[in-house]
Amino acid sequence: MGRVTSDTSATHTAALSAPEPAGRPPAWQRRLRRFGYAGRPQADARTRLVAPFPEPDLRPWAWLGAGPDLAARLARWSGWLGPLLVTLCAGVLTFWNLGSPRKVIFDETYYPKDAWSLLQYGYEGTWAKDANDALLAHPPHILLSPEHSYVVHPPMGKWLIALGEWAFGMNPFGWRFMTALLGTLSVLLVCRIGRRLMRSTALGCLAGALLAVDGLHFVMSRTALLDLIVMFWVLAGFGCLLVDRDRTRARLAAALPAGLGAGQVRPDDAVGDRLRLGWRPWRIAAGLCLGLSAATKWNGLYFLAAFALMSVLWDMGARRTAGARHPFRAIVRRDALPAFVSTVVVALATYLASWTGWIVTKGGYYRDWATTPEGRGGSWSWLPDWLRSLWHYQSEVYAFHTGLTTPHTYMSNPWSWLVLGRPVSYFYEDPKTGHDGCTAAEGCAREVLALGTPLLWWAACFALLYVLWRWLFRRDWRAGAIACGVAAGYLPWFLYQERTIFLFYAVVFVPFLCLALAMMIGAIIGPPGATERRRTIGAVGAGVLVLLIVWNFIYFYPLYTGLPIPKSAWHNRMWFDSWV
Fold it and tell me: How far apart (Å, rounded) are the C-alpha atoms in residues 80 and 191?
């Protein structure tokens, strides 16, 4: 496993602490240093472009009895073995008794049925009023008609839910299968992203493990809603951009001329200003993933805009480090147009392709709008009828989303999300003694509550302050990337203060909260150069925090899975009145 550090590696730490060029720094820098500001690192250009991974630590494997050769191989493989082990544990946890509760819970009354309709017709049909009870009957009945229905979310997420229904049938396990699979794979993504971001396998695995024991992510992984699917594609797009960043900067480093020391390179303005970065398949893959997120729910568009801008700023920073005299001019000339095509154009094409089922059939809602008297004529009549009909459909959906102000029992303001002010109850029953597994004389409660693990979220509030401090005053791009992920998923909701919105929308940025918390825990443990006493105290403190978070998840586990517990135990878990 990679060493646990508060920075990406010992080499990177040295780069951050390297002295600045001779001369008195500007006054604004001297003032900011009171708050921990560090100047631009002056290490070798290759190290600043691509921070190396630290050499794997062989001691843990030696302690387990492995010989030198086996320990070396295991240490090399740990970059995958560790994340896969964490993912396996998360998968067992998520898939265990996935079909329970055997009910249509919360918004499962919409998306699984729409998904099944897509399988049958290519568009969303109409279900009878008692369709939920008929689905759960023995034998089940499918009360679906081809009459189109009005839906307000794109079809991509419902097509994915439909894959589980196609494989396992129209039942709770079938319609929850794909969200459970994507929720499990998201743990693997966070492990690998954290490893690449922080240059530490241990911290990467810690970030993934934190995601696995977050209650909101866990509940959403076991429920057939769309937000977990948006989260998966956003996370995949972010990971692709990280790989693209490393490969692009490595290409710049390879083009730089040799420096004074052995193996070193020096900045060169010809390379920084004029080198063409060529084919970038990972950025195209990011555009595809972000397009799939927007094709599931429109809030994926905020991530597309934020991450596309972040990628261009990364290019500007890379060219500056490589020696560009005019990095902004260089990215405008060399990188801006390819970046726009790779992200925005690819994402929009992906979004359009997700509507193929609606396009190639004739029964969908508004499918033939362009052929009606209202849709005929106008300055855009030269466009295909299906495209004009689709545009009209999208404009109607936009009007619906921006005008949705119907009160709901579990609606909440985004100001309260990070402190878990108003979680959403997806399912609740109060079985009597002797029914549905209830053995308590006082009676029981069964609930599925979309509640993040409280200690994890409250610790993440401090972690967000930490990453903002690192980004603003230590100029740490990794902290800025994490903050960008949180901001893109969180801040846009403040624009809709009157709209009906819910806490579970926050699942989209939960992985970035876990990455922030893992980074803060690395800082608690201490940098590589710290004394043994400092590292020991830090490790104990970090370990206690992680164990408390795991205990907190276990404590609330019955509320995440709908297990019957005594009424008094349920009341004990309602820490605030707003949770009821």
Answer: 9
